[in-house]
Amino acid sequence: MKKVTTARISQLLFLALFLVLFLMTEYRGSDRIVAAVNGFFRANPLTAASTMLAAKAYLPLLLPGLVVLVAALFLGRFFCGWICPLGTILDLVTGRIRKVGAVRALTGRAKYWLLLPLLTASLLGVNLAGLLDPIALLLRALTFFFHPLFGDTVRGGWRSLYTVMGERRDVLDPGYRLLRDYLLPFRETLYPLAFLSALLFVLILFLERYERRAWCRRLCPLGTLLGLVSRLGPLRRTPAKLCADCQACREHCPTSFDQDLLQTEECILCMECALRCPSRRVRFRFTGARPQVGTVMERRVFLGGLLGGVVLARGFRFREPTAEAKLLRPPGVRDEDEFLKKCVRCGECMKVCLRSALYPAFFQAGAEGIYTPLVVPRLGYCEYNCTLCGQVCPTGAIPDLPKEEKQRQVIGKAVFDKNHCLPFAKRIDCIVCEEHCPIPGKAIRSERVEVTGFDGIKRIVQQPYVVDELCNGCGICENVCPLEGKAAIEVFRVKDRTPLKAPAGGAPPPSDPYADPYAGGGS
């Protein structure tokens, strides 16, 4: 019977915790999310290092990441072997993937060619680490592809069951409610970049055809950062070389033996070698802090990595000026540059958005903004009473604001296209946007105007207009506009996003913005 190490138990527990927190990062009937998967990002040293370098400031939310980085100085890459959920998934599937040989194309110092440019670009104010962060890669694949696919599949199957059951379908309701309340996504959404997110995850799994933990060993920037720190630590494996009469360590080690010498910066502290050593010679001991013998990287790799970071910072900062007018960010984001420095592109804000307003950017915000959240009012709108996106943001890129303060945050301003709007273009009544405006006192109002119709008859038409001092750009007006295709009213970005003044008339009457569209099952 195969022995289960303490490291493997820890891996499984943290993977289960990650999945539970992922499911809890969702609207489940409460205005506050008690626990979210953002804790894994706050304990992520790569997130902490890249974000603080880019922001040029200490961010208290990311203190756990600095603690883990310091712990790696004493314990090595324990995060990779004991905590990382992506590493656990690789360990679980690698035995079921047939190996075809060593991954020669990624040998050498490929991992440094990824880490150094990312950190250098962060230092220059362009934070791209989230694109290759292992936890972000896994979370985006789950959020944008696998979880929505799971939800669509289950709901489709449930509707089929209702059809088969006919009048007896009510007996299935308890089972559906259990799934709906704990496992299914709150809403059905098709995300841009979903297939790209899934493809990147599948590529990481595909690398297992060449060697165990190929991603962790050859590419992962988080593992590389922890490995560099671990070289200076006191924890050492003895013996450091393979025994002449035994090669068992090479067989069982997932990362650390390229030749006969242990590569300390690649050891993930899984302890498999100690557990399976036939002669019980292998030990892990604190022997006093001393750097590992041998060079970390060649000078050309170091200088090339720095140069690559400069190229990244300059190349990825290009933005298309014509797209900036519709570059709408979540509520509370006032400075675009500051937002890009802090956003780790995890997708949590999009997952919890109640009205499907947030979607991942492709090149709308330039190459630097890929996977960052955009408000797309024609597809959804920012719910007036919702503060969920700020609650789950791991770095504070979207601030966690009280409801009353969030309601005053300016996303943009609504503007009418009079060549398209029915009361102006067709000279017929339409006040749908005014009816749906949630702002106290109404940011969209209408006035009765006498106009001459195209039939030559004079009539009174209610023509809407925007009160800029009240409009926060939530986008509901653009979302509900009855015209197909382009809306007659659109929200555009404004330079001055100073919060609106507190309303004097109090809050609007309560509504039920969180009604579950799937309640009642398959009727």
From TrEMBL:
Compositional bias of type Low complexity: which residue ranges? Answer: 513-523
Keywords attached to this Swiss-Prot or TrEMBL record, sorted alphabetically, are:
4Fe-4S, Electron transport, Iron, Iron-sulfur, Membrane, Metal-binding, Transmembrane, Transmembrane helix, Transport
Q: Which SUPFAM superfamilies does the record associate with it?
A: 4Fe-4S ferredoxins (SSF54862)
Return the Pfam families for the record.
Answer: Fer4_5
Please give the residue ranges the record annotates as the region Disordered: 500-523
In this chain the 4Fe-4S ferredoxin-type domain maps to 258-287, 329-363, 371-404, 462-491
Residues passing through the membrane, by range: 59-92, 112-132, 189-207
Q: Record's InterPro entries?
A: 4Fe4S_Fe-S-bd, 4Fe4S_Fe_S_CS, Electron_Trans/Redox, Helical_ferredxn
**PANTHER family attached here?**
FERREDOXIN-TYPE PROTEIN NAPH
The name this protein carries in UniProt is 4Fe-4S binding protein
Question: Origin organism of this chain?
Answer: Geomonas anaerohicana
